[in-house]
Design goal:
With 130 residues, the protein is of the alpha+beta class. It has one domain: Pnp Oxidase, Chain A. Helix content is 22%, strand content 48%. It starts with a helix and ends with a strand.
Length: 130
């Protein structure tokens, strides 16, 4: 899982796919964290993506960097603990302009039953589960 985090962190931007009814939705994200040995992402509870994940927690993210790409699929689970939110926001202090661990809007989610596949045009795909 650490290799997945390192790739996403270095890539800087990754794209998350959710379902909005029968319509897929994809948008860029940039906040990724490891807390208590789980891979976390962050968003806002008032955003459409939050409502989509609440209805269907199965998501997939994708990032591309240096001729390699990473896809991670799994279920997202909300962690409403202040400690988890603080850890994420401390890792991304620029997010504090919009969020705080006590604002009732900050959403942190961790991956459960995740499978990550590293791919490139020059190597066979490699999959890790966490």
């Amino acid at each position: 899982m650490r290799e997945v985090f390192d790739f996403l962190k270095k890539a800087g931007i990754f794209y998350i796919a959710t379902m909005d009814g029968d319509q897929p939705r994809v948008r860029p994200f940039g906040a990724v964290d490891v807390f208590e040995d789980k891979l976390y992402i962050q968003s806002g509870k008032r955003k459409a993506v939050s409502k989509q994940i609440e209805k269907n927690p199965k998501v997939e993210i994708c990032a591309f960097m240096d001729g390699r790409w990473l896809r991670v699929k799994g279920e997202l689970v909300e962690d409403d603990r202040r400690e988890a939110k603080k850890h994420m926001l401390d890792s991304y202090p620029q997010l504090r302009r919009m969020y705080s661990e006590d604002d009732g809007n900050t959403l942190v989610l961790y991956f459960k039953n995740a499978e990550a596949t590293f791919s490139s045009f020059t190597e066979p795909p490699r999959t890790v589960k966490f």
